[in-house]
Amino acid sequence: MTERWAQKLNVDKLEQIKARLGMKELHSEDGGPFHTITNADGSKDLGMTRVLVGDDQVKKVVYHAITNEVHPPGAPAPFLLDSHMVFAFTDEASPIPHWTFDSVFSAPFYAMHLDLLPRVDLGSHRTYMDYVFGHLNDTFAAGKSHPGLSEAQLTPRQRSIMSQWMLAYRVHADNYPAMDVNVQAYLDWWFQLLDEGLPQNVLDSIKDTDIAARDAANRALIFNREVDPVWDLIGPMVGDRQSELLRAQLETNEVVYEIPADFKVPARTEPVMSH
C-alpha cells in the first residue's frame, strides 16, 4: 500500500478536534482504543473505534477505521479497503452543524466525503444557510475544481439528508494529498462557528425549528441501513453485532457500549438502490 493518506488526514483532524476542544478520549479496559474492530468470527483485527466525549458544545466524536481485503459477490477480484471516518457531533439542541470527513482508499483511488451537517432545513431558512454555509462557497468551488475528480456514487436520497456544500468525490492517489487544504478549511470554519456562535438574527430566523427533534430524525436517516448501502459491505466483514455497534455509535450522542448478543441485522424492506 502507498502512504496511508486516508488514515493520515483523518487522524490529523481527529487529533486537532481533541486538542482544540479539550475532548476526553474513552478507552477499553486495557487502555487501548474504545473498541477494536475484528472480522466476523473475531479471529483477525481489522481496525478500531475511537470515541471522544465533551461537556461543552461538542458532545461526542466518533472515529471508525477499517482496513481489510474485501471480496464482493460477483467481483472479478478482491480489493484492499482502507477506510477512515470522523464524525464530530455538537449538542442535540445546538444550531451549530456537525462536522464530518471520511476517506476510503481502494487502489488507485481515494473516495472522500466532507461536510457540515445543517441543523435546520436549508430550503426554508435562507439566513441560516447564507451565514453558516455561504462562508464555504469559495472552498467548495475550489474543491470541486481539484484535478482528476469524479463524482461519488451517492443516491439523491443520500444527498438530500446532507448539505449541498458536501464535497464527495473519487480522487486519484497522486492528487489526493492536495485535497487536505479543503478539509482543513471546512474544519477551521467549524471551529470558528463553535468559538463565535451564531449572530442573533440567525438564531431568531430558526426559532420555528425543534433542533433536537430534527437532529434525531436526520441522524436516523443518515445512518439508516436502507438509506446508506455501505452497511451492506461492512456487515459481512465484521458480523451483525459489531456492525450494529459501529452504526449505533453514530446515531446518538450517548455512548453505546454493547449490542445484545442475539442481535441480527433486520431484513431489508426495499431493494438496494443503485449508488
Question: Could you please describe the fold and organization of this structure?
Answer:
- There is one protein chain.
- With 275 residues, the protein is α+β, with helices and mostly antiparallel strands.
- It has a single domain, classed as oxygen-dependent coproporphyrinogen oxidase (3-Layer(aba) Sandwich).
- The chain is 34% helix and 25% strand.
- Strands 1, 2, 3, 4, 5, 6, 7, 8 and 9 form a nine-stranded antiparallel sheet that branches.
- Helix 8 (230-238) crosses helix 9 (240-251).
- It starts with a helix and ends in a 24-residue tail after the last helix.
Compile the SSE list and pairings.
Blueprint: H1 5-21, E1 24-26, E2 35-38, E3 45-53, E4 58-70, E5 79-90, E6 98-106, E7 109-117, H2 126-132, H3 137-144, E8 149-151, H4 156-160, E9 167-172, H5 180-196, H6 200-205, H7 211-222, H8 230-238, H9 240-251
Antiparallel strand pairs: 1-3, 2-3, 3-4, 4-5, 5-6, 6-7, 7-9, 8-9
Short structural summary:
The chain is of the alpha+beta class and about 280 residues long.
CATH secondary-structure class: Alpha Beta
Q: Please report the number of helical segments.
A: 9
Query: Care to count the β-strands?
Result: 9
As residue ranges, the low-confidence spans are none
User: What is the makeup of the main sheet?
Assistant: 9 strands, antiparallel
- Give the termini separation: 26 Å
Class from helix and strand fractions:
alpha+beta
Taken as a percent bin, the fraction of beta residues is: 15-25%
| Quaternary structure | single chain
For the structure shown, list the relevant keywords.
34% helix, 275 residues, alpha+beta, oxygen-dependent coproporphyrinogen oxidase, nine-stranded antiparallel β-sheet, globular
